[in-house]
Write the structure tokens for this entry.
Amino acid sequence: MNVVVQKYGGTSVADVDRIKKVARRVKLAVDSGYGVLVVVSARAGVTNQLIERAKAIQKNPSERELDMLMTCGEQETIALLCMALHTIKVPAISRTGWQAGIQTEGLHAKSRIREVTGGDLRKQLRAGNVVVVAGFQGVNDKGDVTTFGRGGSDLSAIALAGTLRAKGCQIFTDVEGVYTADPRIVPDARKISEISYEEMLELASSGSKVMQTRAVEFAQKHNIPFEVRSSFSKKSGTMVKKKVKSLEDMLVSGVATDKNQVRISVTELPDRPGAAAAVFKVMAEAGVVVDMIIQNVGRQGLANLSFTVPSEDAFRAEKALKEHFADGNGGKLGKSTNIVKVSVVGVGMRSHSGVAATFFDALANEGINMLMISTSEIKISVAVEPKSGDEATRVAHQAFGLGK
Ligand code: ASP
Ligand code: MG
């Protein structure tokens, strides 16, 4: 039997009307002869409401109980969707993550998938049932319910597609796919028809958040191709897979804009081996992900160091650094500023030179000042002032001919 996995996110199942719509969409796949496994998120906003309620009782609730609470959101949706399917005469049965044999390890709220046995999913599918599985959840060795981090239903869908060797895995969301740039910033941005896992990951880590990053990493590791598409339209979306032939001669496949970045500055850092290492060790211990780094030439034995961190980590980073410097370690915390990170991403960069020159030239022609630069094999990122972020994105998009 050919199985397809369809995952519907929170906005796609936001209310009863949308759940009924999803049921009709699922029926289309059933009518085409597929065995259909559906993974759903909690209705939009529900997970946040549950967390708020917990925090109204206790500031730092037990992570075990918080996971137990959060999984309720998805469980509401599986039951409601099954009922909606029953009303249109589609046999359907709901399954929680643990009923589907999703076994996890690691910490609550960010557990990893150890194994997916599938429980009786295959049997149910063969019996002609649509199986609706609660995303975002599994069960650990102790028998405790755990969750996969925010947006984790994507991971459930990818993992189940892998286990069932599904013919297709469709991630239905509220956008039509992955775009060459954020269409709200670049009006002529195009939907990308095919993209590789690694490009998708670089775009995601650079601010184009269409899917949970961990889910894409899992798909890459186990080579599980999937499609990102809209539940509100019939148009095909973006295929994410291993190698994308048509992009071979394409230098850049997309431009990502990340507006949630803060630049942290350290001044008067002793210009000697180990001083910078100590700073980044402090960051690592505080669980802060550091991205771009600049250290400039030391003068009179002192140097300046700046680096970027995600906005949500900035406070934690500053606090840890303040303590580090107060302990008599050389260096002073300077003023932090918001920056926007604009990144061009493409596997074509590997084999072509001149991408940086084109990118920087285009920015220079518009008088946009680059504050920091960082690169990986398939990505070049620059930090610019917040007021130039949108313009820099448009300029890069145009410079690489990505528009319509
Ligand atoms: N309901 C969870 C969240 O809001 C998981 C998901 O939507 O994928 O993060
Ligand atoms: Mg999501």
Residues 9, 41, 151, 154 surround magnesium ion (ligand 2) (CB under 6 Å).
